[in-house]
């Protein structure tokens, strides 16, 4: 029952965080998903532009293809090309650095859509850290398995949610 408490606590807090689009939190060395989902009908040719606090090109998507990216983000920023047609232009930033923190914008100018969020990057990620605080109960022998399961469930729920928008 203690292990179930940990899993429930982690999943609950992950889902709470995914509903808040204004602030995203990640750990140095970890990864974070920045959502940009347009739920209305898209024109045939659509572009999306991601910018950071310094107006650097995080990612430009032209007509369904990744186009430009600042060297700072090379090999660290990933999008979901198979979901562009459904309006999902979200990005995943891996290997987070302290200087990744700050505001991010996703613009889809052809439809007049823009979403803004702030990325907070905190201390070093470790396998015993939780993403959103310390749960009320711990099972040390299974904590790593539960964290991996929680990360999987979070990605599943995010993908599931984005597939219906």
Explain this structure.
The structure is a single chain. Helices cover 24% and strands 28% of the residues. Helix 1 packs parallel to helix 2 (143-163). It has one domain: Sandwich (Immunoglobulin-like), CATH 2.60.40. The strands form 2 sheets. Strands 1-9-8-3-4-5 form a 6-stranded mixed sheet, with no helix packed on it. Strands 2-7-6 form a 3-stranded antiparallel sheet, with no helix packed on it. By secondary structure, the chain is an alpha+beta fold. The protein is globular and about 40 Å long. Its main location: membrane. It is a single-pass type I membrane protein. It is found in: Cell membrane.
Summary tags:
single chain; 165 residues; alpha+beta; Immunoglobulin-like; three-stranded antiparallel beta sheet; 2 helices; 24% helix; globular; disordered N terminus
In short:
With 165 residues, this protein is of the alpha+beta class. It has helices at 2-19, 143-163; strands at 23-28, 32-34, 47-51, 57-62, 65-66, 77-79, 91-93, 102-108, 113-124. The protein has a single domain (2-163), classed as Immunoglobulins (Immunoglobulin-like, Sandwich), CATH 2.60.40.
Which helices and strands occur, and which strands form pairs?
Layout: H1 2-19, E1 23-28, E2 32-34, E3 47-51, E4 57-62, E5 65-66, E6 77-79, E7 91-93, E8 102-108, E9 113-124, H2 143-163
Parallel strand pairs: 1-9
Antiparallel strand pairs: 2-7, 3-4, 3-8, 4-5, 6-7, 8-9
């Amino acid at each position: 029952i203690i292990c179930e408490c940990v899993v429930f606590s982690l999943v609950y807090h992950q889902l709470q965080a995914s509903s808040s689009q204004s602030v995203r939190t990640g750990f140095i060395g970890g990864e974070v998903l920045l959502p940009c989902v347009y739920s209305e009908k898209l024109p045939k040719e659509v572009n999306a532009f991601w910018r950071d606090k310094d107006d650097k090109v995080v990612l430009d998507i032209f007509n369904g293809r990744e186009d430009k990216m600042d060297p700072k983000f090379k090999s660290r920023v990933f999008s979901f090309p198979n979901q562009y047609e459904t309006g999902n232009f979200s990005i995943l930033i891996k290997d987070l650095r302290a200087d990744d923190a700050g505001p991010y914008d996703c613009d889809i100018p052809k439809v007049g859509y823009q979403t803004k969020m702030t990325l907070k990057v905190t201390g070093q990620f470790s396998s015993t850290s939780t993403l959103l605080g310390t749960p009320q109960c711990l099972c040390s022998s299974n904590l790593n398995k539960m964290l991996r399961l929680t990360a999987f469930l979070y990605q599943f729920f995010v993908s599931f949610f984005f597939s219906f928008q």
